[in-house]
Amino acid sequence: MTKIRDCNLMTVYESLFSAFGPQLWWPATGPEEMIIGALLTQNTNWKNVEKALSNLRRNNLLSFPYIIKTPLSQLEKMIKPAGYFRQKSQRLKALAETIVATGGLDSLDLLTTIELREWFLRQSGIGPETADSILLYAFKRPVFVIDAYTLRVCKRHNWLNDKDDYRKAQKFFIRKLPLKVNIFNEFHALLVQIGKNFCRTKKPLCQECPLEPFL
DNA sequence: CCCCAGGCGTCCA
DNA sequence: TGGACGCATGGG
Fold it and tell me: Please, which residues have CB within 8 angstroms of residue A50's CB and are 6 or more apart in sequence?
C-alpha cells in the first residue's frame, strides 16, 4: 500500500485559482436550468448535454411547470443527445412534478442543508454527486462535490487510498478547507478542469500536471 | 474497432 | 456493503 501524502489543500486551491482564474460554474442561467443540467450530465459529455439543453430551451422547457405539461415522448426527443434519454426524461419529469408539488424551489430552500440533501437523495435518479451539485450550485450551500475526476486526481496524487469512496473523499476536503461556498464552488470546478486535461483514465500521473509543483 | 464522458438503480453474494 | 451490469449518445 502506498503511503498517503499529506497536502495543504488551501495552498493547492489558491495556486490553482491564481493560475486558472474563476471557473464561473455552474454554466446555467438559473437554478432550474442548473438542476436539469445536473441530471443530464450524469456519466455524459457536457457537449452532449448542451445539445439537449438547447433543445429544451428552444421549446421553453427549462421550466418545471412546463416540463410537467409535456408528453414524455417529446421530452425524450429533446433529451436524446444527452444519452440514457429514456431514464433521464422520465426522471426529469418526475422530479419536476415533485418539486412543483412541494411548492417549488423557494419552499425547498427553507430546509436545512442536511434536510435538503436527504430530500434530493430520495428522488429517483439523484445520487450523492447530483444531490451535492444541486445543493452547492443551485442552493448555494457549503457542500463539497465529489466526482470521478476529483476521486481520480486525489488517488493519483495519493491524497486518498484507491479504495476510498465518495464520503471519505468528501470528509477529506471538508476537514482541510474553510466551509465557504465560493471556495467549494471554484475548487470543484478547477479539479474537473485538471482532471479533464491532465489526469486521463488510462495514463499514469501526468508529468505536465499543473498540480505537480504544488505537492 | 476501441475507449471515454461532471452517475444511478438494481440485483446478488 | 460492495461488485457487476444496464442504461445510450456523440467525440476522439
Answer: none
Q: Which fold does the domain A31-138 belong to in CATH?
A: Endonuclease III; domain 1 (1.10.340)
pLDDT of A43 over the 60 cut: yes
List the A80 CA – C10 C1' distance (angstroms): 11
Domain A9-24+144-214, CATH among 2.60.120, 2.30.30, 3.10.450, 1.10.1670: 1.10.1670
Query: Over 80: is that where the pLDDT of A31 sits?
Result: yes
- Cα–Cα dist A63/A56, whole Å: 9
- Number of Cβ within 10 Å of residue A113's Cβ equals 13
Nucleotide lying nearest to A88, CA to C1' measure: C7
Name the segment(s) of chain A with CATH classification 1.10.340.30.
31-138
Residue A119: predicted pLDDT: 98
Q: How far is the CA of A11 from the C1' of B4 (A)?
A: 31
Nearest protein residue to nucleotide C9, judged by CA and C1' positions = A83
Tens digit of each residue's pLDDT (9 = 90 or more) over A81-102: 999 999 999 999 999 999 999 9
Check residue A215 and give its pLDDT.
Answer: 63
pTM (whole model) above 0.90: yes
Nearest CA among A123, A122, A144, A125 for reference residue A133: A144
